[in-house]
Amino acid sequence: MLLSANQRRLLSAFLRARREALNPAEIGQPATPHGRRRTPGLRREEVAQLCGISTTWYTWIEQGRDISLSAAALARLADALHLTAAERASLFELTLRRDPAPLAAEIPPAAAPPELAAALQATTAPSYLLDRLWHVQAWNDAAGHLFAPWFRSGEACLLRYVFLDPTARAFICDWENRARRLLAEFRADTAHNPEDAGMQGLVGELLRSSASFARFWNNHAVLAREGGRRLFNHPEDGILQYEQITLVPAAHPDHKVVMLLPRQA
User: Which of 109, 219, 237, 251 has the highest Cβ tally under 10 A?
Assistant: First the structure.
């Protein structure tokens, strides 16, 4: 897939900026005989050598030439330029390619980012934090009370709780409609990386374990996690109604902060 002229221009500027920002000494590149360089950062030929590509081909990229770019070559460029995770993601989004690097899904889930856990405690509305596979990582006291049937089940994954725990059908009002929409939201949320090993494992498990999950999943519905009205049949407080708001933290785009604002019937 060839890029548009504007995409090539943006890619050229991006790669040149990252190349010039590198300190050659920090990545083992020798100094010039006089100890100084005429240009900042790495030279084009040095980047090409680190990537195992020709200097001409790399130069054409920085010149915005209309050439084909493979995902493997882009991955080598990302490594050679020591791109951060955000910069690497931006490179592959700009070039409309899928990153072939080992998937983050194969890495065990990390602890909740402390700043997000602290943010939950700073609000009085029931709020909880989901990771990229919708495991709850943290919650405040109000959420602990509201979602007691879920949290007391010992199941961290929201999807596993909804489809495999019998208490979910009593706790979530209009369970079938909510479960169907929840799964469509999950599909949309993970569509950017269909090869995610963790997602594939979770989906495979639920396909084998829940007939409802299999039926909804095979409908291929896709919805954004848009929030809206939520009703729960709480074991102590009866029917409760909330307005759900879902926020994606800029510094942690693989997480979601879910807030439930009380709503009058």
Answer: 109
The per-residue pLDDT of the chain, averaged, comes to 85
Q: Which range of residues forms the domain containing residue 37? A: 5-101
Out of 44, 66, 101, a domain closes at 101
What the block records as the tokens of 90 is 């931006």
- Give the Cα separation of 241 and 243 in Å (integer): 7
The predicted structure's pLDDT at residue 241: 96
220-245 tens-digit pLDDT: 766 655 568 999 999 999 999 999 99
Q: 3: phi > 0 → left, psi -120 to 50 → alpha, else beta; which?
A: beta
pLDDT band for position 169 (50/70/90)? Answer: very high
Structural domains in the chain (count): 2
Query: Rounded to an integer, what distance in angstroms lies between the CA atom of residue 77 and that of residue 15?
Result: 9
Tell me if 232 sits within 8 A of 173, measured CB to CB.
Answer: yes
CA trace torsion 96, 101, 105, 107 (10° rounding): -150
**95 and 193: one domain?**
no
Identify residue 44 by its one-letter amino acid code: R
Task: Over range 251-261, report the average pLDDT.
Answer: 93
Decide the pairing of beta strands 136-139 and 127-130. Answer: antiparallel
Shared-domain flag, residues 95 and 154: no
